[in-house]
């Protein structure tokens, strides 16, 4: 082949089109995650005199992944900043460093005129940007929030109560670029896959006899899901016969539902399982399944049953549910039942049920707690009727005790 002349080569190179340029872009976005908390301070006059620097704290609340708390100082935060004032602050109550945030503290006018005392970062230009809290316990607020003598004669104080509303906006930043492509990822199917294994019975190496019914299963699956099955099948005190295990004190349908949850990680259709299309049947199954979940250490199943029972609290079943909650240490469910029974319109009807007789015999200590709830409900009813309020928040934990988390 002949050699291409140099000048021809240069001409060919100079005439080729330029490669297209690739343009890209991205956007930095800075915004806030906002949340609010209402803090009511009852018995203001009784809190006076606790001392300069002493405070009343709200419960902690979460905004933007951090915990916060409101601090009210009836006698002021410090002497040098004039103890004639009350102080009000919002504090970072969880671990964090250089947390940037916007704040709003509002003392509510309780006369209905809406002349609230508001200190806010929101909706205005900030000279130095959002406030930065350096570490846990850092605060933003006002040492001279309100002169005490003026506060006590103002309409912010009503029935010896102050009402504070707080808004926190945690600043966050992230960068977004164009999504060139995306690959859809299906949701996890492990529950369905294990469920098919249970339904097929393939590879089953253990079976359970429950009141004449036999259910095949797989040791490894049971051991992975339940610490009780793990000990029963593989522990040092494992059953002598792990080929077929007899289960006492449990209905076959309950054990079948238990296995369904272990494999599928979800509840079966309880009405379909019982063959009865009634709320009562579903409630009864949830009660038995809760006891089974506690017996085999299946915490998530127990909570699912608690959630179902909370939604279906009724006159004819609440007493047995309350006894069950007490016996299996379900404190949230117990609190819901106690509040329901203590309502004046429910109490007499519940006391006439067979379940209430069972409650008295099996859990007599619960009756004392019930009396406390009834007394509290009566007191609140009196307050509502005297002040015309629509309702009063309980603000208690699952055992009915007042809870204040502190930093």
UniProtKB/TrEMBL annotation:
Q: Where is the MATH domain?
A: 34-168
Q: Which PANTHER family match?
A: BTB/POZ AND MATH DOMAIN-CONTAINING PROTEIN 1, BTB_POZ AND MATH DOMAIN-CONTAINING PROTEIN 2
Name of the protein in its database record: BTB/POZ and MATH domain-containing protein 2-like
Residues covered by the BTB domain: 204-263
Composition skew (Low complexity), residue ranges: 10-28
Region (Disordered) residue ranges read 1-28
Protein family membership: Belongs to the Tdpoz family.
- Give the pathway: Protein modification; protein ubiquitination
User: Which SMART domains does UniProt cross-reference here?
Assistant: BTB, MATH
Do you know which Gene3D superfamilies this protein is assigned to? 1.25.40.420, Apoptosis, Tumor Necrosis Factor Receptor Associated Protein 2, Chain A, Potassium Channel Kv1.1, Chain A
Biological process terms from the Gene Ontology for this record are: cellular response to salt stress
Q: Which residues form a coiled coil?
A: none
Query: What's its job?
Result: May act as a substrate-specific adapter of an E3 ubiquitin-protein ligase complex (CUL3-RBX1-BTB) which mediates the ubiquitination and subsequent proteasomal degradation of target proteins.
Q: Which SUPFAM superfamilies match?
A: POZ domain, TRAF domain-like
Q: Which organism is it from?
A: Eucalyptus globulus
